[in-house]
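Q: Got a minute? One more chain.
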Amino acid sequence: MNLLNLFDEINQADPEFADRISPRRDAIKNITSFGSKVAVAAMPFVFSTLVKKAYGQALSPQVIEVLNFALTAEYLESTYYNTYGQRSNIPSGDRPGIELIRVDENNHKKFLLQNLGSAAISEPKFDYTAGGTFADLTRNDSVGYDTFLALAQAFEDNGVRAYKGQAPALMSAPAILTAALNIHSVEGRHAAHLRYLRQRRGVAVKPWITGVTSGIPAAPVALVYAGEDNVTQGGVNLTTLPGASGNATANMVTEAYDEPNTKENVTNIVKLFLAK
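A: Always. Here it is, folded:
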């Protein structure tokens, strides 16, 4: 380990790193006064301690609550892809994208588990057919794959709105907030890709959300899109504003803005898929 080069690299990525570990900088300056063998043996320990001092922080009860809320949604998604995202009914051309989404969702779950530690909630048991509403999901054929894509889209759209809705509650933990917003954007990309796959299979769905339209006829997913027909931003009804080509339609406005979802709605969505 070249400790000095490592600190240089960290400083380039985080110019405030030195200030974060002050006054422990003296420990870095004096490390070469150790006996050579002792110094080499101590480096990993010293470095680990300094990084924890620089970035480690106790999570507040509010942050823990939000992360466990997010973990519940990630359990729903990751287990879904692990269960149904590797079956033989997935066309070969679609497999790479589905596999990437599966890996992403498992990494999201790992991130939350690592940050929560012993405070993490246990994974519940899921019934992805929602009591038989999506019974076709269990079919290992093209019909089953179509149902898989529809539910995957709903879960990803749900994830996008869930993360956005809880972002204000993470303001006290900037590093966690940044990671959560990064996950939020990736969930959006997942949803767009899944909509593209459904579109290629003849489903009348756009790559983005338009009002409360989802291309999924089953009523249980309605909560995923509740509120997406909002046309008021900043207290202004955008359909009333004149533009170069006339007033914007409700569809145009809803496609231009991404709406958060409430914790209550997201929790109720997850409950639909809990094993009874």
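A: The CA atoms of residues 213 and 225 lie 8 Å apart.
Q: Perfect, thanks.
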